[in-house]
Design a protein that fits this description.
Blueprint (H helix, E strand, L loop, with lengths): L23 E12 L2 H4 L2 E2 L2 E4 L2 E2 H14 L1 H4 L10 E8 L4 E12 L4 H19 L7 E11 L5 E2 L2
Antiparallel strand pairs: 1-6, 1-7, 2-3, 3-4, 5-6, 7-8
Helix pairs in contact: 2-4
């Protein structure tokens, strides 16, 4: 169990002690992909989906940013972080999938991968919530880390 950073040598869950780490620039980008059925896609006008609840993408962006800022309250062993930036972009690709990218950055002793993943996930769930009256055939296909910089090693999905 020593390979897991959130488990001590006795198998007990623990928050990672980052006290001796150096502050560095940390960034992370995560992506969620949402598949939309035709009855939702026909509501796509001028770069957003319009519903009785309002503009879907704009609401999802706000929800994702709010969630990224609260990650330490949602994931039990995450450090509470004051993010320097959180940017969410939502685009529709040629396969009629929504691509939700969340990029987070901070100058800190710990990374922001979880914040980016939570931001992208909650934005996707918000799209589902706002569009479910049109169809329950919406699929949140996947959520993944695309890239991270800073800390021990960088990562970029190929």
């Amino acid at each position: 169990m020593n390979d897991f950073t959130h488990v001590d040598k006795n198998g007990k869950a623990t928050m990672v002690d980052v006290g001796s780490k150096k502050i560095s620039k940390r960034t992370a980008t995560a992506r969620s992909i949402v598949i939309l059925p035709e009855e939702v896609l026909i509501k796509f006008i001028n770069g957003d989906i319009q519903t009785k609840k309002g503009a879907v993408f704009q609401t999802a962006i706000i929800a994702g940013i709010m969630a990224a800022k609260k990650t330490g309250n949602l994931i039990p062993l995450c450090h509470p972080l004051g993010l320097d930036n959180c940017d969410i972009n939502i685009t529709l690709n040629k396969k009629n999938e929504l691509i939700i990218d969340c990029t987070v950055s901070i100058e800190a002793k710990t990374g922001v991968e979880m914040e980016a993943l939570v931001g992208a996930s909650i934005a996707a769930l918000t799209v589902y919530d706002m569009c479910k009256a049109l169809s329950h055939d919406i699929v949140i296909k996947e959520t993944m880390l695309l890239k991270k910089t800073g800390g021990k090693k960088d990562f970029e999905r190929k």
